[in-house]
Amino acid sequence: DRRLLWKLDLRLIPWLCLLYLISFLDRTNIGNARLVGLEDDLNITGGQYNAALSLFFVSYSLSEPLTNVLLKRLRPSIFIPVIMVLWGICMTTMGLVHNFQGLMASRFFLGLAEAGLFPGINYYLSCWYKRNEFGIRAAIFFSAAAVSGSFGGLLAAAIAQMDDVGGKAGWCWIFILEGIATVVIGVASFWMVFDFPDEATFLSPVDRERVIRRLKEDQQSSAEHEDFRMTYFWASVKDWKTWLYAVIYMGADAPLYAFSLFLPTIIGPNGLGYAGTRAQLLSVPPYAVAACLTVLIGYVADRTQQRGFCNAGVSILGVIGFAMLLGSKDPGVQYAGTFLGALGIYPCIANTITWASNNTEGVYKRGVTLGIVIGWGNINGVVSSNIYRRPDAPTYYVGHGVVFSYLVLFLLGGSTIMYFLLRRENANRRAGKRDDLVAGKSEAEIEALGDVRPNFIYTL
After folding, report:
1. Which pLDDT tens digit goes with each residue over 78-91?
2. Distance CA 426, CA 446 (A)
3. Is 90:42 a contact under the CB 8 Å cutoff?
4. What is the pTM of this model?
5. Residue of 158, 167, 238, 372 with fewest CB within 10 Å of its CB?
């Protein structure tokens, strides 16, 4: 199995990490563009800038719940490259806009095109790995978001030096060059992204069978063929876990977008007082340490199978970080707070998605559940886009306070509630209190129950 896992990791993980790095870079580079004159050149207000950020999340979130159904029906090797080429075109056009209306249109279609990647790849990876193997892979995959934050600041600082080249401002070139790179990588993905295990061309027939056998031993049927029926959709919608995971995820996702979109602003001239290239470069280190902790938590959670404890423990770091941003006016203390904020947010994204995936069984039910959870989290990006307002500079009490509340109430509180509810349900199943659900049913009917089966024990 180790040799098989190594083969899967080498063929799947590096390229998928690159795709998400590009995705997160493209959705958040507008924060870097703002530092080098986007608002002044387009003659837009702070409120209009926030509206452009918000519109992205509207189209992005509303599209997500059904994207995994499209991924399953169109095949990953077609669906993922197509959406990448489309959003690369949208990103390039952002560098060609001349007014607020053009910026709004490009942000709307960027959200629409990008919507399928993050839930799609998490769902896709969950169809390859066992439950106690998925977390570290999801963490490595999501750490690309933190790396993109580091890389994005460095890249933006370099590209911004092209100011006036071809008559375009430096911020235009940030969008144009990164958009062209996305299109090129999207075209390459037609050959670099593979289909599900039962059809993957890089595996021999024997290895395909081994992958499917491993999943069956892990009480999963995710690699097997299953025709879509609306009953799978309603099974997800009616499952209380779907909505509690959505609450937990929004407790991490709203802070994530607030942090990634506005870190340059928090550090910049209207925040901690740094300007230009120095502000861009100071935004790099918090992302770098967050990437490291994301991978570490993925490893620890896989080994201990205590995802709730990991979420709760890590979220406390974020709570402390934003308390420092709220309570201190010392730039050094506030900058240290951004490190703890990043450490408390990024690991919980991957861990929550893995937790939801571990505890949802069935090909389409899992796909719909991940779409709902991630979609609900991302609609809170509308909140994130409007809480760091220019009149609140340099303290940004409203923004920091909203993020602090999300971390305490939804991430920490929701993870704690989910842990105890799942522990109680596992105790009931081990005591035989759910055996009536399978009385008189055939083996196929019991299998179709998915995670409702009494012998399916939830990951805590």
Report:
1. 999 999 999 999 99
2. 18
3. no
4. 0.84
5. 167
